[in-house]
Amino acid sequence: MTKQLNFVPLGGSGEIGMNLNLYGYEDEWLMVDCGMMIDSMDGADQIFVPEINFLKKKKLVGMVLTHAHEDHIGGISDLWLELRCPLYTTPFTAAVIKRKLAESEIKERVPFKIQPPASRFTVGKHFDCELIPVTHSTVESQSVVI
Fold first, then answer.
1. How confident is the model at residue 2 (pLDDT cuts 50, 70, 90)?
2. In angstroms, what CA-CA distances link 36 with 26, 28, 93, 132?
3. What is the pTM of this model?
4. How confident is the model at residue 90 (pLDDT cuts 50, 70, 90)?
5. How far is 89 from 91, CA to CA, in rounded Å?
């Protein structure tokens, strides 16, 4: 049996908004970002989040969030009850997410694994992750090396 890393983009690839990428190895899956997109073409704002049916029978071991823009974190409040995994992110991004969840029913249930910028950590058995600081228009923006 060949062991390989699988990549499944569920949103955001080739477009702005709804960023959600999955990486799978053996029986585990890692999510990077969980965004939303706002479409206001008809004069009424509509919010879209990625379709996550692909994950229904998968073992999601964690979600790494790269920065605090809505197209990277905006889907968490809508999708976390289905995902139910820990969130790995920097202190600033965690604070923004917690503020967004403050009035939701899930605010106390979402487990955060706060990581300093430019840190290295393991998610599940297989995913060695390193945050790399990048210049962007929000505090503590990171790229992730898996």
1. low
2. 28, 24, 15, 23
3. 0.94
4. very high
5. 7
